[in-house]
Specification:
binds zinc ion, Nucleotidyltransferase, domain 5, alpha/beta, binds 5'-O-[(R)-(carboxyoxy)(hydroxy)phosphoryl]adenosine, seven-stranded mixed β-sheet, 10 helices, 391 residues, five-stranded mixed β-sheet
């Protein structure tokens, strides 16, 4: 965080509104510079209800004033995945309270806010509507601008908030719904270099966890189990490794884990740990190979001007992946940046920050702006065979 930030706490409400987990995170004091823009951000695209307040100075400096996240794991746990209707209802039930908490934590009122940003896609349509309608209502009532933020753009710009890193940079965006390498040239200026042709990486972690009987979200559970496992015990494929095109594939890897698990059944804890460690090692080998390929393609296309490699999205919280990408970037003469763990997964601080960046460029949206369940960052990117909606 920028200097001057003082230590406070943000809140993560897991389950019912009364179950409050305090998470350490550096937050700034309430805004004092009149040239700063204060943004309220709202995130409801999947299974996290979140609100945050961010300040952006005229020089592009960032201050995070509050970040409240309510995860819905308990609501979806019994179903083994996110149920869209349950997610939308859960957002509707608690969003007002989450927004009030974010304002209180930031020590500001709606009258102090300069603009309201909400994730308008991609994501589950019911949840998107809940967040966007709330943001529009606040914008209308306070006569402030509304900004429809692309959730992927918010992940892509988070390092501006956390590390003060402006574009251009090359970015691995790895979440539950997306796996892409993007050249981030600037706000609203993205070139997709690679994407997955089947499952997203977070989805592969979640499905692997499910088939091994581990809890959701699967990524942290697999990462934890892998710590005690032997990564060399099970032979697993490295999909797409060495291929000339820079794309990813994870469906075959997940199927191979299922096969190995069947062969080793009944599974002891040590078998599960070894399967998780072997899966994570295969992921690492293939992701680093694909990123190396994407770096060489980006360099050819930009005359070697890209100096920073960034990772963002929920899977970027994975310590082994962060370590591997740090080493890859170093070996390629680049530096590596990733948001702190609390801001890798879905949150509203990134929505508020993307809104602030757009506001600074005069990019606001009408109150009639629609939500976009599918909303690629690079609309002109070539279709990739088999990629379906995740491209
Ligand atoms: O960005 P995110 O919060 O939501 C989407 O936009 O999809 O990403 C969620 C994904 C889930 O699939 C979750 O299992 C994965 O990120 N994830 C992880 C880790 N923490 C979260 N995957 C691997 N290792 C982790 N530590
Ligand atoms: Zn996300």
């Amino acid at each position: 965080m920028p200097s001057g930030a003082r230590e406070r706490k943000s809140v993560c409400i897991a389950g019912g509104p009364k179950a409050v987990n305090w998470r350490d995170w550096k937050l700034a004091a309430a805004a004092s510079d009149p040239r700063e823009a204060l943004l309220l951000g709202i995130e409801t695209s999947c299974d996290e209800t979140a609100a945050a307040v961010v300040a952006r100075g005229a020089d592009g400096s960032a201050r995070l004033l509050s970040s409240i996240v309510r995860a819905q794991w308990e609501e979806h746990g019994a179903f083994g995945g996110v149920v869209p209707e349950i997610a939308a209802r859960a957002h509707a039930e608690c969003l007002d309270e989450i927004i009030a908490l974010a304002l209180k934590e930031a020590d500001v009122s709606l009258a102090d806010i300069d603009a309201v940003a909400a994730a308008a896609g991609p994501g589950l349509i019911g949840g998107l509507i809940v967040g966007v309608v709330s943001a529009k209502a606040i914008a209308l009532a306070t006569a402030k601008p509304f900004i429809a933020v692309n959730h992927l753009e918010a992940h892509a710009l988070t390092v501006g908030l956390t590390d003060g890193l402006p574009p251009p940079y090359l970015m691995l965006l790895v979440s539950g719904g997306h796996t892409q390498v993007l050249l981030v040239r600037g706000v609203a200026d993205y070139t997709r270099i690679s994407t997955t042709i089947d499952d997203a990486l977070g989805e592969a972690f979640d499905k692997t966890a499910k088939l091994l009987g581990l809890p959701q979200p699967g990524g942290p559970a697999v990462e934890k189990a892998a710590l005690a496992g032997n990564p060399d015990r099970f032979e697993l494929p490295r999909p797409m490794k060495g291929r000339a095109e820079p794309h990813f594939s994870f469906a075959g890897l997940k199927t191979a884990v299922r096969q190995r698990a069947r062969e080793a059944a009944p599974l002891k804890d040590s078998d599960i740990a070894d399967l998780c460690a072997s899966f994570q090692q295969a992921v690492l080998d293939t992701v680093l190979d694909r990123c190396r390929k994407a770096i060489s393609i980006a360099r050819e296309g930009t005359g070697n001007e890209i100096r920073h490699f960034v990772a963002a999205g929920g899977v970027a919280a994975n310590a082994a992946l962060r370590q591997g990408l740090t080493e890859l970037a170093r070996s390629e003469g680049m530096d590596f940046h990733a948001p702190p763990l609390a801001l890798c997964g879905d949150n509203a601080a990134m929505i508020a920050w993307a809104g602030a960046e757009r506001l600074a460029k005069g990019l606001t949206d009408p109150l009639g702006a629609p939500v976009h369940p599918r909303w690629p960052l690079d609309g002109s990117a070539e279709k990739v065979r088999g990629a379906g909606v995740k491209a």
